[in-house]
Structures are given as structure tokens and as C-alpha cells.
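RECORD TYPE: inverse folding
INPUT: C-alpha cells
STRUCTURE:
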């Protein structure tokens, strides 16, 4: 159930800030101080007054012209001055501007507008609690939209410390509950929304019916995410009654309730009741711009339900083709950075999945394939595509400009994370980081504009690259298939593309159930003091869901599967999932080494995007090994794990990796006969690595600790640990942005380090982290670990995989062989444990 697309009624139902009735408020608030001024002005100047521009903006918005609505509202804001008289109107206008910018997918600009509104309210209207309160909530909403949840939480908790009326406290508690729930603190979220409800029911009605309705809507969302569907429906019923009591201003909110109820009823399998909702409410949503998430959610969830009827599926798809077209325009909008594109897609992933499922049921596999590719696009995809396009260029000058754009994009991503961390901790560095971020993004956009002027726009600079079915099929070997996993409201859809045809199937697994199962499996695989036993039941649920009978039949004769998807399903490698029909007792009796893992059937790789192969000069051989840094930490119980799970202050105090140097030297003897570079121990420093020639090596291995962002104070991006070198000016952390600036052309890079594929921050793609940086640097294929790996297991898997590949097996098949070998080797301690052999995933560009 996607409630309001993450934005409470998109503020459309709020008279004060972002609702359609805001027109009267804005013109009224502007009118008092400005009417006297306009009386003596010529008519043509009056026509350009803030009031007139706001009226024109609202008219353009009603007509669906979002660009004109923004232009006119922005012009009105330029004419308004922040002082005690006009501050309320300016705050309201800025808040509306932030909503329109969000509709357009310009989230950083939306945040800047809401932040300015908040600052003006605090400085120029501190004695107007309504204005300050609404500006605070608007700012928190935009912070949530850019995933700065910690900062949004801090803003709201600070607001609760001041004096406020009961209704303002209730609204703030409501917003805080939403944020805390997003951070998976579900018990606290339930307590906060309960407090908000207790306050709301004491307020005069119907004056506060809309607030009470929003609280009930959030209670429904929490119940839905906890799979309490009947409770969710009861809360939705209460929400609808309260919004009805609020009158016409809540018409959009009632449509959100209808959309949410549809999603819950679909998940509950209550089709007859769901169909009763089809004909009511869409009119309100269709009055919003087609870019609005409220409208997109409503249109797509309605069409999704209609598509289950074979006779209605084609018409259902036709009804939402304009919505998909609007999303495509946003995904290809000019001069966005790769991170901004990936961010837009992540916000619209559920709706892209819905459209793909609708298209499949309508028999339009081509459109479904396109939507699924968009759904799977991420910052990793953008990096891989950018490098492929650059390598395909014949003009060295254009290729160099593309490389500079890639560098700026990576720098901007690192600065954005650093700024967010600094802002959450109210660091004085936040403003300077924001200025540097603005410069990096401006540099990227300047290159984009220059390439467009020079007619080199084929470079596309991070735009999603979508292939036709025919192109994808032509790229597949007879024994390989693409598997696109498409999560929708109540079904997990799997689309198989093979050289000789396509097929699709679906399983009854909702998005919340998929998230829970993936989290349970991942928890049981990640080493730690309280790690539970391998969750066989959840692994079986997921494995059977991604390969339902129709999909499995279509994979007959296939040996290798290229996986294309995004989201929580990728937090667990498919190799460790189970498949088959057995009850809990049968499943529990089998030893770990005898379980029906999917790796027994197929070799798997992850494909960030359907990218046209780029030309690369052939390499005969050569090996580069970097790692085994000199570290002096205590070799305690965690010393055998590559990585760090708790904050530390002294890099040199990290535990050494006893097997890393042995691993690298053995690989060098086997693979480095033609040419080799070995940087270990005292040689494994940042300075030495950055000055080394890293080109021309067929295989490159990094064997060291991988550190997630935030593990050290001030570390805003993931990094690999190297040997500390006091006085060198380096910090012994090779960060993602530094990796991206390297020039690597290796056929295969192995990151034999923990968390090398884990996400950069909440909401990122699963294979983000260091993997993205190495693709940006030019690596063709990556082997990455998704959780801390025992040192001897990492060493064995790396060596066995490379040697099997060197003997002629494909990369995915070589990794599968190494996994099965460890699993069946009784001499290797705990070799059958999937947390050891299943940690690595193959990422192929």
C-alpha cells in the first residue's frame, strides 16, 4: 500500500500550505500589503504582481502545464520580500513551489525551497505559530523525500520541545511517527501515532477532521506493512469517514484512501470488494498534474486491478500509457546528474513495476520489458552505462569530457552524503559541503550542455539505457537467460528472456512479505553475536517466488541466469535461496549441505542494466593484487572477518588479515606469469596505489577490510583499508570517490572484502557501495561480497573462482563451481554454511 507516494496527500488538501485552496490563501495574504502599492501602478505592472502570477500559476497547474506553473510561481516569489507583513504569504508560496518541484522530480531544489520557507518563518514570523509550524512540517517532508530521515527527525523532535497547541503537537507526532517507521523503529512509531490519535480525538470536529484522517491513514500504513490487513482496512474506513467530514478540501485525501484500500484488498485477495472501488474517486486524482505521485499511484493501482481480468487488461494498460510516458520524460529529463535520475526512479519503482505487470497481462511484453529495465535502473547502472558509452566513442576529446563528467558525478554523490551527515549532526561544515556539491553538480551540467551544443548528445550522460527485446535476445548465449524480478502489490512477477523466446510467471508474495523474508534470510547470513540459524523457511518462500512453475519451465536447458532487478530482493544472493515443495519438518531435517539451493540448478550473475557491449582492447593476462595491509589490532574473535561492524577511531588498530597475503601471492604465481603487480604489507599504501599503472591487467584483486560509510568519524562514503603511512597526508582509506578516479581496464575485479557490494546509505541500490566506484573506474566485471566474510573462506572462493575461469568456465559458472566445491568439502570448517560460500555475487557490466 503506497500511501500518498510518501507525501501526505501531497499537501493538496491543506488550505494553508500546499493545497488547491491555497490559491485563496496566497492571494489573500499577499493582497493586504500589496493592494495599496498596486493601486497607483499601471495596469500592465499590476498584471505582473505576485497575486496575478500566483493566479496564473494555479491556472497553469490546473491545465496540466507544470513547467508554466513553476515559472509563474517562481516569478511571484522573486517579487515577494520577507518581512513581518508578507512573510506568511512568501512561506506559503515557497512551500507550494517545493511541491511543484517535487512533481517535476527536482528534489534537491524542492528541499531548498522548503528550507528557505522554514528559515523565513523562523526569522520573520516567529510570533506566528501557525506559519512556523506549517513551514517546519513542510521542511521535514522534503527532508524525508531526499532520504535525510535523521535530520527530519531532529527537526520535528526540536519542534516538540517548544510551546504549541494540541493540534500542532498531534500533527508533529504524526509526521514523526511516519519518519520513525521508515527507519524500521516500528514499536516507537506505533507509540507516537497512538499519542497523535489520543490528542486528535479531543480536538473540535469537523475542524480537525482532516488531521484525524491523516493519522488514521498512517495507522493503516503501519498495519499494512505489518501484514495486519483487516486492521489496515478498519483504519482506512476511519480515515475515509474523517476526510468526508472535512468536506471538499479533503477530496484528494479521500482518493488516497481509495487507492490504499484497493492495494490492501488486492493483497488480501478480496477481489469483489476491490472492484467495487474502481469507479469512484479517480476524478480527484486526474485533476492533479500527471507528474504527481498521488495521480500516478491512483491510476496505476486501479489499472493493476483491472488487468487481472483478461478481457480488460488491454484497456487498463491503455489508460495508464500516458502515466508511463510522463515517467519516461522525467527519467530522461535534460541535465540531471546520474544520482538524481536514480533517485527519481527509486521513488517510482513500485509504479514502474505495476506498469510492467499490467503490460504483461495485456500481452505487451515489449513495454513490460522496457518498464522493468527502468525499474531496475540505479546509480550502479548509470556508472556502467556511462563507462560503456565512453569506451565506445572514437573521439578522444569527447571521451575525456565524459570521463570528467563521471568524475564530477561521483564527487557530487560523495559530497551529498557528506553534507547529509553533517546536516544531521548540525556540523558547521554542512554549508561548505553544500557549496562544493553545488559546484560539482554545476560542472556536470555544464559538460552536459556543452555536449548537447556540440551534437554529441548520444553520450546521454547517465540517462537510462533501455534495450528492445530483440536486442536483448541477440546478446544472450543459448545457455543463458535474463530473469527480471518485478515486485508488485500482491504478486512477485518473474519475466524470463532467452535467445529463443520469453515467458513470465507470478507468485502470491506481497511487497511487505518479500521485504520481511529477505530481511530474515539476510539476518541469518550476516555474522554477529546474535546471528540466528539459517532461515530455511524464508529462503524457500523467496526461492519459490522468484522461480514459480511457469518461469521454471521456461528455463529448461538454461545453465546461467543474468538477474535484473532492484530493491530488497537483491539483498540476498539468489544462489542461497531454496526451491522445491516440502513442509517445515522435511526442510528442518536436512543438513545444510543437502538443502535444495538454487545454486545447484543455475549459475547467477547480477546485471545492472542492458548495456550495449563496449569495445575494449583484448588482454592476454596479467594480475594485480592489492591488500593485506599492515594493521596491529587484536586478533580476537572477529579477526577472521574481513570488515568492521562497529565504529573505530584508529585504522591501524584494525585486526590484520592473516590469509590475505597468502591469497594474493598464490594468485600472483598462478595468474601473473606475463605481468604482475603486488602491493601488500608496507607497499599497500594509498600513495603507492594512486601512482601505480593499473592498466593492462586481466585480473585485479583487493584483499582487505571493506568499511561502510559512517564506520569512522567523518567517513561519508565506503572505503577499502590500506596500510597507514603517517606523515603522507593520506588517511589509509581508499574511498569510493577515489576509486572512481582510478583508471582500470581489468576484465575481472574481485573485491575480497566485506560489504564491498553493500549500499552506501538507506535507500541505495543493493550493489551500490564500492561496486559502483569500480565500475566507474572501468572494471568490466566484479565479484563482490555482501556481508563480512571469514578470511579463509574469502581466500578460497577467490582463488577457486579465478582458477576455474582461467580453465575456460564462464565467470558465473566458475563462481558456482567454487561455491559447490566449498559446500561439499567436509575438510573445510563449516563449508556447508551458506554464510561462507554464499557471500559473493557476480556483477557483470
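DESIGNED SEQUENCE:
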Amino acid at each position: 500500500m503506497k500511501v500518498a507516494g510518501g507525501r501526505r496527500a501531497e499537501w493538496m488538501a491543506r488550505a494553508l500550505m500546499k493545497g488547491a485552496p491555497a490559491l485563496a490563501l496566497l492571494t489573500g495574504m499577499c493582497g493586504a500589503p500589496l493592494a495599496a502599492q498596486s493601486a497607483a501602478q499601471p495596469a500592465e505592472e499590476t498584471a505582473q504582481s505576485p497575486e496575478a502570477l500566483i493566479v496564473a500559476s494555479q491556472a497553469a497547474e490546473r491545465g496540466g502545464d507544470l513547467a508554466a506553473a513553476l515559472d509563474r510561481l517562481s516569478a511571484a516569489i522573486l517579487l515577494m520580500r520577507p518581512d513581518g507583513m508578507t512573510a506568511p504569504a512568501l512561506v506559503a508560496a515557497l512551500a507550494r513551489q517545493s511541491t511543484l518541484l517535487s512533481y517535476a522530480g527536482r528534489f534537491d531544489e524542492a528541499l531548498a525551497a522548503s528550507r528557505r520557507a522554514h528559515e523565513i518563518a523562523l526569522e520573520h514570523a516567529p510570533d506566528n505559530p501557525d506559519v512556523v509550524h506549517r513551514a517546519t512540517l513542510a521542511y521535514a517532508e522534503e527532508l524525508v523525500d531526499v532520504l535525510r530521515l535523521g535530520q527530519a527527525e531532529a527537526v520535528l523532535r526540536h519542534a516538540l520541545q517548544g510551546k504549541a497547541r494540541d493540534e500542532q503537537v498531534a500533527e508533529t507526532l504524526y509526521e514523526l511517527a511516519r519518519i520513525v517507521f521508515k527507519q524500521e523503529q516500528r514499536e516507537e512509531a506505533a507509540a507516537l501515532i497512538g499519542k497523535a490519535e489520543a490528542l486528535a480525538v479531543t480536538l473540535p470536529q469537523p475542524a480537525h477532521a482532516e488531521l484525524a484522517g491523516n493519522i488514521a491513514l498512517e495507522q493503516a500504513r503501519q498495519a499494512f506493512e505489518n501484514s495486519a490487513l483487516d486492521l489496515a482496512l478498519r483504519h482506512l474506513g476511519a480515515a475515509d469517514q474523517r476526510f468526508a467530514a472535512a468536506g471538499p478540501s479533503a477530496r484528494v485525501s479521500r482518493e488516497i484512501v481509495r487507492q490504499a484500500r484497493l492495494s490492501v484488498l488486492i493483497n488480501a485477495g478480496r477481489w469483489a470488494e476491490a472492484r467495487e472501488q474502481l469507479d469512484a474517486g479517480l476524478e480527484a486524482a486526474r485533476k492533479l498534474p500527471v507528474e504527481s505521485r498521488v495521480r500516478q499511484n491512483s491510476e496505476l493501482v486501479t489499472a493493476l486491478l483491472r488487468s487481472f481480468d483478461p478481457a480488460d487488461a488491454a484497456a487498463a494498460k491503455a489508460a495508464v500509457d500516458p502515466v508511463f510516458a510522463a515517467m519516461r520524460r522525467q527519467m530522461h529529463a535534460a541535465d540531471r546528474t546520474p544520482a538524481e535520475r536514480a533517485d527519481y526512479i527509486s521513488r517510482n519503482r513500485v509504479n514502474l513495476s505495476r506498469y510492467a505487470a499490467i503490460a504483461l497481462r495485456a500481452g505487451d511484453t515489449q513495454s513490460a520489458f522496457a518498464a522493468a529495465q527502468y525499474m531496475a535502473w540505479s546509480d550502479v547502472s548509470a556508472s556502467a552505462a556511462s563507462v560503456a558509452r565512453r569506451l565506445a566513442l572514437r573521439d578522444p576529446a569527447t571521451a575525456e569530457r565524459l570521463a570528467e563528467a563521471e568524475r564530477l558525478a561521483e564527487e557530487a554523490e560523495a559530497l551529498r552524503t557528506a553534507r547529509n551527515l553533517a546536516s544531521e549532526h548540525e556540523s558547521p561544515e554542512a554549508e561548505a559541503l553544500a557549496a562544493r556539491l553545488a559546484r560539482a553538480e554545476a560542472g556536470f551540467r555544464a559538460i552536459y550542455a556543452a555536449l548537447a551544443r556540440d551534437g554529441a548528445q548520444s553520450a546521454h550522460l547517465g540517462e537510462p539505457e533501455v534495450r528492445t527485446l530483440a536486442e536483448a535476445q541477440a546478446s544472450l548465449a543459448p545457455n543463458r537467460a535474463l530473469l527480471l524480478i518485478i515486485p508488485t502489490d500482491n504478486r512477485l512477477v518473474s519475466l524470463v528472456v532467452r535467445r529463443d523466446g520469453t515467458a513470465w510467471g507470478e507468485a502470491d508474495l506481497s511487497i511487505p512479505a518479500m521485504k520481511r523474508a529477505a530481511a530474515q534470510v539476510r539476518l541469518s547470513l550476516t555474522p554477529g553475536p546474535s546471528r540466528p540459524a539459517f532461515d530455511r523457511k524464508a529462503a524457500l518462500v523467496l526461492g519459490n517466488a522468484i522461480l514459480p512453475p511457469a518461469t521454471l519451465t521456461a528455463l529448461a536447458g538454461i545453465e546461467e541466469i543474468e538477474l535484473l532487478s532492484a530493491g530488497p530482493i537483491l539483498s540476498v544472493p539468489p544462489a542461497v535461496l531454496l526451491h522445491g515443495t516440502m513442509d517445515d519438518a522435511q526442510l528442518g531435517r536436512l543438513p545444510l549441505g543437502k538443502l535444495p539451493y538454487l545454486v545447484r540448478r543455475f549459475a547467477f550473475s547480477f546485471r545492472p542494466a542492458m548495456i550495449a557491449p563496449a569495445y575494449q582492447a583484448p588482454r592476454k593476462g596479467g594480475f594485480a593484487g592489492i591488500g593485506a595491509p599492515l594493521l596491529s589490532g587484536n586478533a580476537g574473535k572477529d579477526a577472521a572477518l574481513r570488515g568492521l561492524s562497529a565504529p573505530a577511531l584508529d585504522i591501524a588498530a584494525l585486526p590484520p588479515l592473516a590469509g590475505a597475503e597468502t591469497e594474493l601471492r598464490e594468485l600472483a604465481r598462478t595468474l601473473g606469469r606475463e605481468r604482475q603487480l603486488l602491493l601488500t604489507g608496507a607497499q599497500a599504501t594509498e600513495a603507492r596505489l594512486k601512482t601505480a599503472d593499473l592498466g593492462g591487467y586481466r585480473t585485479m584483486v583487493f584483499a582487505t577490510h571493506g568499511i561502510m560509510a559512517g564506520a569512522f568519524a567523518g567517513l561519508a562514503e565506503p572505503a577499502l583499508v590500506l596500510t597507514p603511512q603517517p606523515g603522507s597526508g593520506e588517511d589509509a582509506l581508499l574511498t569510493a570517490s577515489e576509486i572512481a578516479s582510478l583508471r582500470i581496464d581489468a576484465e575481472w575485479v574481485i573485491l575480497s572484502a566485506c560489504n564491498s557490494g553493500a549500499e552506501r546509505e538507506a535507500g541505495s541500490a543493493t550493489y551500490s557501495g564500492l561496486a559502483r566506484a569500480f565500475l566507474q573506474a572501468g572494471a568490466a566485471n566484479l565479484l563482490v561480497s555482501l556481508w563480512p566474510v571469514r578470511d579463509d573462506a574469502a581466500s578460497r572462493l577467490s582463488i577457486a573462482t579465478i582458477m576455474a575461469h582461467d580453465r575456460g568456465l564462464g565467470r558465473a559458472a566458475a563462481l558456482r563451481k567454487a561455491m559447490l566445491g566449498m559446500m561439499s568439502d567436509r575438510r573445510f570448517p563449516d563449508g556447508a554454511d551458506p554464510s561462507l560460500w554464499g557471500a559473493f555475487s557476480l556483477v557483470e557490466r
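NOTES: The two ends are 34 Å apart (CA to CA).
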